[in-house]
Amino acid sequence: MGTILLPYRPRQAWLKSFGLALSIAAALLAAVMALVGFPALSGLGALAACLLALAAMVRPETLRLPYRLWNKLARHYAAAARIWLLGTCFYFVFPVVGRAGSSLGLAPSPSATSHWVPRETRPAITYTSQHRTGAAEAPCGGWIRTFVSWAARSGNFWAIFLLPFLILLSALQPEEEEAFPSNIYTLF
Amino acid sequence: MAIPIVALGLPFWLTGLLTRALLPLCQPRMVPWQDLIAFHPILGWKAKPDLDAYCLEARADVFHVRTDPQGWPGRASVRESAVVVFGDSYAFGYGVDERASFWRAAPQLPVKSIGAPGYNLVQEVLLMRHFAPELGGKLVVWFIYLGNDLYDNLSPEMSGYRTPFVRKVNGEENWEIVTHHLSLARWSCSSGRQGSFRRQIAKALFSESLLAERAYSACEFLIRKGRDICRHAGAELVVMTIPSPGLLDGNHSQQPASQRGIASAIDPDYPDRRIGEICDKLRVTFVPLRGRLDDRHYKELDDHWNESGHRRVAQVLSDVYRDNLARRSP
User: Fold this and answer.
1) Strand B111-115 and strand B285-288: pairing?
2) CB B154 within 8 A of CB B167
3) Where are the domains of chain B?
4) Mapping DSSP to helix (H, G, I), strand (E, B) and coil, where does residue A44 land?
5) Residues forming beta bridges with residue B162, ordered by sequence position
6) Confidence (pTM)
7) Closest partner CB to B5 (pick from A3, A18, A85)
8) Would you say A126 and A133 are in contact if contact means Cβ atoms under 8 Å apart?
9) SS3 helix, strand, coil % of chain A, rounded to 5?
10) pLDDT higher than threshold 70 for residue A72
11) Domain boundaries, chain A
12) Interface of A with B (CB under 8 A)
């Protein structure tokens, strides 16, 4: 899933698609306004849609400033949203889920038995993950699939309630810089 | 608890999703840079023929590359051109669409550009020799990029790719062109101007130093070769130096950090003075682009010209051609 933040240094293609995205949004708004009986607003929306589409296809460079402003607003929103979501997780979700109990043996045993847990040597492939996985398995697919797989296998089903928050948090992360191609002096 | 924050950000979510969904439709199919260049047994490497592809530039945008049936930029031929330019990635038009390159920016002046990224003056002399039969009556403009050409002439490799170079003949003051080491095998005997050597090399070439003496002596040898080839072919040679954008006047604050230290320790006019003296001695027309270009003509994150820079260079070429015609007319 991509983030809500767009690349800081957009290529022409990004400016074009941004313009077209806004054009589609304006066209949809115009359609909604027409349906609910606001013809003037609908007309304005349609005009905005046409202008944005024209700018995107003919002179995408003209959208650089609106793009930067939009991304700046998105960045402020993402920062505020991350704080809100983390606070929700720490002060509401974790305390509620924590009441389900824990498999961690933190309290000392009433009998005087040792808390030593014998561990076996793990196959090399498990070193890609901190948690016990099958020898033939390696983390694959997206991180969501890995997370759910771990929760199911380790018995930590409570963690699945965190998944929506983790997905939202990942979408609010700044866009990772694209891996640039080899430099001009990498010839063949 | 998360619903309000999600609802507030709905426009951003939708715009981000829609922008990403439409991106494949707005982006031309790109070809990896390495697919455009191939090994050449005499020149070291050359662009592939009949290219018509989009390429992702190292630090910025996509640009359209077109080459002729021999692998040289643009579709015009040498025969139908009045001006023939020899050079490196600047002559190749790296970083801008082919339609915006300098050879297309002055339609009243047919220009053919011969070059490839990474070329040094030695490769360009070999190309002049190859094209000599077609250069009669033409103006030959030779781009010399001051950022790396002077050193690269002395180096048997460029980023590990074997390249023609010049070396002093044993015990003599003369130079010779060396090509027998060219092959597909990577060069591993030296590391050239990479990494930490770049700053020292730049400092040495922009001031009086042992390296500068060797580099400019080699440069004189190569310009003399080029002059002789052009004279024999009945062409007029013009040497045109291209300044490194980090060393343009008043541009020091915009340089990458690695270059700021260099700029303050060197004389940015030194290469043009030395090359100007060489051209004067050899009676070759010399046109330095320093003073004719500024930081507006270069890309933001790259040493190459932007579209405005190509238009400016096209204008300079037109002026040079006109002046040359005026000098030659009775």
Assistant:
1) unpaired
2) yes
3) 36-328
4) helix
5) B157
6) 0.77
7) A85
8) yes
9) 60, 0, 40
10) yes
11) 10-75
12) 2-6, 9, 11-14, 16-18, 20-22, 24-25, 56, 70, 73-74, 77-78, 80-81, 84-85, 88, 92-93, 164-165, 168, 171, 180-188
The residue among A15, A72, A184, A186 with the most chain B CBs within 10 A of its CB, best to mutate, is: A184
Instruction: Give the tokens for residue B318.
Output: 């037109």
Number of A/B CB contacts below 8 angstroms equals 119
Residues in A closer than 8 angstroms to B1, CB to CB, are 88, 92-93
Residue B58, token pair as written in the block: 């190292």
Q: Which two tokens stand for residue A42?
A: 């609908």
Report, at the CATH architecture level, how domain B36-328 is classified.
3-Layer(aba) Sandwich (3.40)
CB contact under 8 A, B19 and A187: no
3-state class of B294 per DSSP?
A: coil
Q: CA-based diameter of chain A, in Å?
A: 81
Token pair belonging to B159 = 């980023």
ipTM of this complex: 0.72
Task: Write phi, then psi, for A170 (nearest 5 degrees).
Answer: -65, -35
Q: Is A17–B61 a contact, with Cβ atoms under 8 angstroms apart?
A: no
Q: Which two tokens stand for residue A102?
A: 């824990």
Instruction: Give A102-155 pLDDT, tens digit per residue.
Output: 666 666 667 767 778 788 887 777 666 555 444 444 444 578 888 888 888 887
Name residue, tokens 């990474």. Answer: B118
Per residue in B1-32, pLDDT (tens digit) is 667 777 888 888 889 999 999 998 988 888 88
- The two tokens of residue B84 are 């023939």
Contact (CB, 8 A) for B323 and B315: no
Q: How far is B173 from chain A (nearest CA, A)?
A: 32
